């Protein structure tokens, strides 16, 4: 298998890196040949034993993609991507489920260890079938996406009892085809944009969540995303549907192995909230940002969108973005239902040569719809960060309200921060407020903190966490702690 | 015996818009353990600069002289190492830290210093108890701990917050740079009592002030007159009275 030698090379290249989670797992891979054409798509669909309608959907997305051009309006720059030079399918070789941790591929366990995943969770992640009653030790259900195929899904039982479906989307295609078919591509259509079309054509896995009427999902749903094979574009597809009066909180956290070449990542996330339903979607993104000189790093071109279809429904996006060489990401809300609510809380950190162009879109369609946008941008080193946000109020959205707060914090004098708010208001009865600030961490502040005994890095961490507090407090507890550490780690070496 | 704090021939300058500006021109000053000394002197003579140089502010370039602190070369240490070694500076203009919770800041600082001093860290409960007590003894409203560091604090509240930090950080040597200015009469007494509570054979202080009133409360062991970047006269507590009535003209004339 060429992948084995390839990964071995990659591991050897790791060297000593400042990127704490930069490592690559050596594990048997099943790789599709490089390149993208209809045959690649047929191969993916066949490997996943998909129904005909899905193959057709993929192919139509692919044909749409062929006619599209990469978007150029974002304030990011990178060398052209050769889409024919990527692998579009990689799957760990299938083995029957292990009975104990001893039977699990030790490389996989080592990966988890480096990620700091506790042992009992490692067992769950690795798919070890524990005896009855030993499962419910942590209130977080984890669906690990190990490269493209979800290695395992846990807590299925507890969730099943509540009527909640939480599984890899490929499995949902088999077990709940009517649900997937009904909602897939209804929020982000196959031909929505260049990357979304690409994703629709070649997505390999991701999560599917369905919460039935009136059910409050009994635990937070969490996915560890990893990109693990060299040159494998990662195209996750996530679909979350929450029925009337139901609630779910979904956590997505990522770390990625170190690699030398830039790597494309183009995920699509679709959320659907029906009447009185509420979805809380939290992301901590820490993909490899490239080295101090801007070499390597993940290209993160993501389309995330939620539809508040029902009256009084609510979708809340919270993101802490510290990783990736390039981020292109605008989690959005389509506020259709009367009185529906959209929220976007974001911290975007760029250091060294990272570039981020991120923000949100709030589309007010229904009456009395409300949206809140709190975006905190932190730039250090020679990085460049842009907040790009759209608030659109359509003619029928009487009583619509938006509040936007964009704050930028600069560390050093070689970085850039930009705020680009677009406001399109077609209803005079709507109220839109926008506030923006830019500040710097001053020498005075650093000296004051150091005089009190803090190291420079702790001082920066404290000030940055203070700056981000309004966003961090929206994260679930354990995620908030992780995010605080991440903020500090990603700004290491940014001062002095 | 090595003195507690020994400053000799200290010269420092700053690069102000491309021009080298000499500020400290040979400061000699020794403070034995357990003593409180005061520095008085006209505006712009270099008092705050001296405090910054002692605390390790990098903008000031030390061109000559030395500072021994607890037998260590103070000037070779990073600001946070100086803090850990027991040096505290109450700023003439305390700095605002937007978004940073005052209690959280204090606890992080206290534990950083305790760690460096080989002491056990305080847990949240123990810390809050100590912080609340200290705040109360300084007649600070309890909500000051919950607010952001110095943000929106009145002038007097900022000064009290400096003394609160000093109380919790337990320095062996504190520099108070005009901590009395901007305080009302009651606050002045409260702050002075706060400093007096710290007094012990292991604690020294250097108090920079323009007003005799603070010194009446603190009863300093020595008073130094600073002018043009030098200590030009030293004497007992009676100097405060003299400066209060006569001003600096005579000292300046004598020094010239
Ligand atoms: N960063 C700086 N840039 C330019 N000049 C400076 C700087 N810091 C201090 N100085 C100058 O050095 C001199 C001494 O300043 P310093 O603040 O030490 O005076 P001070 O004795 O504390 O005065 P005051 O009683 O008014 O507080 C002043 O002339 C001041 O303008
Ligand atoms: Mg001064």
Automatic annotation (TrEMBL), chain A:
GO biological process, one term: iron-sulfur cluster assembly
Organism superkingdom: Bacteria
Residue ranges of every copy of the SUF system FeS cluster assembly SufBD core domain listed in the record: 225-467
Coiled coil: none
One Pfam family hit: SufBD_N
Limits of the SUF system FeS cluster assembly SufBD N-terminal domain: 161-217
Recorded family membership: Belongs to the iron-sulfur cluster assembly SufBD family.
NCBIfam families: PRK11814.1, sufB
Name the record gives this protein: Cysteine desulfurase
Automatic annotation (TrEMBL), chain B:
Matches recorded under SUPFAM superfamilies: P-loop containing nucleoside triphosphate hydrolases
CDD domains for the chain: ABC_FeS_Assembly
Record carries keyword Protein transport: no
Domain ABC transporter stretches: 5-253
Record GO terms (molecular function): ATP binding; ATP hydrolysis activity
Keyword annotations from UniProtKB, A to Z: ATP-binding, Nucleotide-binding
InterPro entries: AAA+_ATPase, ABC_transporter-like_ATP-bd, ABC_transporter-like_CS, FeS-cluster_ATPase_SufC, P-loop_NTPase
PANTHER family in the record: ABC TRANSPORTER I FAMILY MEMBER 6, CHLOROPLASTIC
Family indicated by similarity: Belongs to the ABC transporter superfamily. Ycf16 family.
Protein name (Swiss-Prot/TrEMBL): ABC transporter ATP-binding protein
Underlying gene: sufC
